[in-house]
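Colleagues,

Please find the record for the two-part complex below.
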Amino acid sequence: MSRSDRTEAALLAAPGVLVLGAVFVLPIAAVLAYGFFRDGVPSLAALDWTSWSRLFADDYYLGLATRTLRLGLVVTLAALLIGYPLAIAIDAAPRRWRTWLVLALLLPLMTSVVVRSFGWLVILGRNGPIVQWLRELDLVDRRFQLAYTETGIAIAMVQVLLPYMVLTLLGVIGQIDRRLLEAARVMGAGWWTALARVTLPLSWPGVVGGSVLVFAVTVGSFITPVLIGGLKLPVLASGIYASAISENDWPMAAVQSVALFAVVLIVLLPYALVTRPARGGVAR
Amino acid sequence: MIGERPFAATVAMLLLLLLVGVFLLAPLAVVAAASLSAGGFLVFPPQGLSLRWYADVWGDPRYVQAAWTSLGLALITVAIAVPLGTAAALSLRRPGALPLRGLWEFLFLSPLVLPAVVLAIGLLILASNLAGGPSKAALVAGHVVIALPYVVRTVTAVLAGVDPATDDAARVMGASAWQRLSMVTLPQAKAGIAAGAVLAFIVSFDDAVLVLFLRAPTLETIPLRIYAGLEFSPDPGVAAVSTCLILLAAVAVGVTDRLLGGKQVVG
């Protein structure tokens, strides 16, 4: 590696690093500052824990945090349970199908979150097809609806996050050496045995990577919980919005942001440190 | 592969693909269907078929104004994020050329997973302290941050399929750094840059989170109008605008797929 290569790389990286430093790292630092210091002035004298004690003492904020974590876990688990078999099926599909299947996964991902939530509001609402059908079967009463429930939020979120899970899994499953599967079959393993004893263990990095990604995105999401859950089911992200915009209480918004940020980092950092971001996982 | 797949497994897979396909596309299909309603209320299935709500929206100056605002924001975002992201991707290309490469890569890609609300609050705090309140500049800055990782990824994905020896060859032949960049590397990365531009455009055009936190009172974008419509009772006009966004997403997915030839950059 010559010196000019290093200069070249540094010059190419510099604009991105500078811009992200100014409009990404600095804003996050500002949030941290407001989370711990009065008026965001980082000095020992200005250390301020009042918002933190409110966060841990007030049932409202504890409710936000538990709901956020619960949604994160439920959505991640559901995305994994649906996404794993789906990734296996897409991987096994003929080439031409595969393209269309991946495009079907990408379309919801690329559609604005307000539009997707809109669709779910119609489907899950009191006059939506699912509820009407359940009502006709006499399984539920007339007041029943899935919109404005946590189940409704989870259903809508799985739709958005399933693509993340499946695409991460596909990246890993697609790289498994087919000869290993053939070897297993030659040695007498059935199709299911080969799946359980060869594919599953080898795709473990995809399972972990996909789950980390889905969890991180779910706990941070804002629009879907607000629109599908309504005012009665706030999550951390909507609590942040309420504190910052409606109540003009920046320290409280900052404290909730730090909490959310911490949850994401706790899940993400160990994973980012043990995997090479360039191949597979978070960075895929 | 040696050995047949059991019939039951094949059936289960087909069933799964069908069910998940319905699950993924149903919300989009419902919105599109509701937009074709001839009636005045948003119901599914729609009452009668007409395109009147599209004409209605087309003639509504608030929607038209919001569309211009969204378009302007998205184009500015593309103009900034694409050169930045391309340069960033190129800097990461040669292992060993950049000290602390892993750290910079993490920095460039982390906006994908860090919650946008946290970024939004931070930008709001900064804009209020430094510029006296949220502004279009703060919003553009936020959009650049969330769009950048997509450009880095698409360019990286395309260059991963290119032999780096071509760059060395150009050097041996006496090409300057600028000539290698403009005559070798950038043409090689062309498809990735174009795909990155499409994704950056969509990310900015579709954003509803940053704009909710950072909206100046007069600034209204298309997603913000849809959001406001949903908070009250949406009419089929909201569905018509939403359908346009779905079509835009479909075009973006199709174009990026063509450009990248199935290379995976999202997820």
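Residues 70 and 150 of chain A are 10 Å apart (CA to CA).

Comments are welcome before we finalize the supplementary table.
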